[in-house]
Amino acid sequence: MTDSVMNWLPYAAYVAPAAWILLRLGRSKTRRQHAAMNAFRESREAGLDSPASLHPVIDHAKCIGCEACVHACPEYPNHNVLGVMRGKAHLVSPSDCIGHGACKTACPVGAIRLVFGTAERGVDIPEVKPNFETNVPGIFIAGELGGMGLIRNAIEQGRQAVDGVKSYLGNTRPVPKVVDLLIVGAGPAGLSAALAAKASKLDYLVVEQDSLGGTVAHFPRRKLVMTAPAKLALAGEMQFKETTKEVLMDYWQNVAKRYQIKVASPERATGIKPHSDGTLEVSTTKGVRRARAVLLALGRRGTPRKLGVPGEELPKVAYRLADPAEYAGKRMLVVGGGDSALEAALALAETPGTQVTVSYRSESFSRAKPKNRARIEDMETKGNSRVLLESNVVAIGKEKVRMAQGGKEFDLANDYVIVCAGGELPTPFLKQVGINVETKYGTE
Ligand SMILES: Cc1cc2nc3c(=O)[nH]c(=O)nc-3n(C[C@H](O)[C@H](O)[C@H](O)COP(=O)(O)OP(=O)(O)OC[C@H]3O[C@@H](n4cnc5c(N)ncnc54)[C@H](O)[C@@H]3O)c2cc1C
Ligand code: SF4
């Protein structure tokens, strides 16, 4: 052995493990880059290339590819919202971004801005004053509808908006048989506002088209929810940071019960107009309600789109799948071709004894993620389900559904129908009420 090799020998004990660690780190970085590239390709192929609302824009001239933003995102590793490809960070799964904003805080070089909408797809944001009032006197907005997503923001804004409402009411007179405040929507913003209204001894009512919990009630079963402590009037600090949908829903349901929060549901607000005495007249699916002030806590998910066919009002028709186990052994029709429809069909097909038919009006599931499309094909080959492409529902009966496909009509034996045909966004409602709405194309 030469002298130079002998001199290096003592260091080998350190060099070898260091090289091994570096190799492992390099491999896991490469794996993450592959995952980012796959997520990027899949989301573009499925047309899911637009974030819903607030999202990061990365300045590649500043980005040093450190991946701090990737790891800071609370959705990671369940979703690859951000990923580093060729040394720069990208929003690889835009539709999975729910606007946490943790990436911006984590970036060491200030390469991230948070914006609403993109150059191609504008996002409608209503104009709201710092006290949450809109340009229409007496109408206030809180929660995600105003542009800021996240449960904590919704709770904080719902509570603060009631302070704005109280100041407004201080300048108007009580009117017999007219509530002080009508809250539209019982998501986190609406629930928080209702608790604040009760704490302030206001005469209030919440109207909700669906059920308590808003968007959270529609999360998949056992979804991990990342949030931050937020203050609820009467109930105190909501301490959760990381929890599940079920735990959060149980907590809200208990709070609503304990403080006897008044919610009328299902009841959808369809319009608002001023009454001659200065109060507001809210048209709903149950009639007309009057209020001195209205707080819109509608969120941005919108109202589920209906099929508009006879029989749709039957109780067997639902617009979301809450618990697949409820339908064990039943004959199910799922209508729609997006990810939510395919995911509902897949969850049902995994339930023992359940027969699933998916009806979609187009010739392929081009708008769904490739992973879901592949799983649906697999599900069909296993035999307990079938797919009817280029088909439409004609009418819904108690034990069957009349379908149309290829110019022919036929009956399908059926117990329940789940319609996942997207939603009607709240913008037309806001515009009809006279609220100013600005469309943002990638601006703050
Ligand atoms: C897949 C997904 C995952 C998410 N994960 C997280 C997370 O981990 N952490 C987090 O902080 N946030 C998360 N969010 C965001 C969070 O769910 C929302 O920001 C939050 O629910 C907004 O609360 P909100 O009360 O403003 O609106 P919503 O929760 O949307 O509630 C609005 C309510 O208004 C009702 N409504 C609408 N229109 C009418 C009408 N005309 N008449 C009567 N009622 C009406 C709706 O039925 C609904 O119940 C996620 C969102 C999605 C889509
Ligand atoms: S944290 Fe900033 S610098 Fe690091 S990868 Fe993300 S955008 Fe680039």
Question: Which SSEs are present, and which pair or pack?
Answer:
Elements: H1 3-45, E1 54-58, H2 68-72, E2 82-85, E3 88-91, H3 102-106, E4 112-116, E5 123-126, E6 139-141, H4 151-170, E7 179-184, H5 188-199, E8 204-207, E9 224-226, E10 230-232, E11 236-238, E12 242-244, H6 245-258, E13 263-264, E14 269-274, E15 280-284, E16 287-296, E17 303-304, E18 317-318, E19 331-335, H7 339-349, E20 355-359, H8 370-382, E21 385-388, E22 391-396, E23 400-405, E24 408-413, E25 416-419, E26 423-424, H9 427-433, E27 437-440
Parallel strand pairs: 6-16, 7-8, 7-16, 8-13, 18-25, 19-20, 19-25, 20-21
Antiparallel strand pairs: 1-4, 2-3, 5-27, 9-12, 10-11, 14-15, 15-16, 17-26, 22-23, 23-24
Helix pairs in contact: 4-5, 7-8
The structure holds flavin-adenine dinucleotide and iron/sulfur cluster (SF4).
Iron/sulfur cluster is lined by residues 58, 63-69, 84, 89, 106-107, 109, 111-112.
Description:
This protein is an alpha/beta fold. It is 29% helix and 26% strand. It has helices at residues 3-45, 68-72, 102-106, 151-170, 188-199, 245-258, 339-349, 370-382, 427-433, and strands at residues 54-58, 82-85, 88-91, 112-116, 123-126, 139-141, 179-184, 204-207, 224-226, 230-232, 236-238, 242-244, 263-264, 269-274, 280-284, 287-296, 303-304, 317-318, 331-335, 355-359, 385-388, 391-396, 400-405, 408-413, 416-419, 423-424, 437-440. Helix 4 (151-170) packs parallel to helix 5 and helix 7 (339-349) runs parallel beside helix 8 (370-382). Iron/sulfur cluster binds at residues 58, 63-69, 84, 89, 106-107, 109, 111-112.
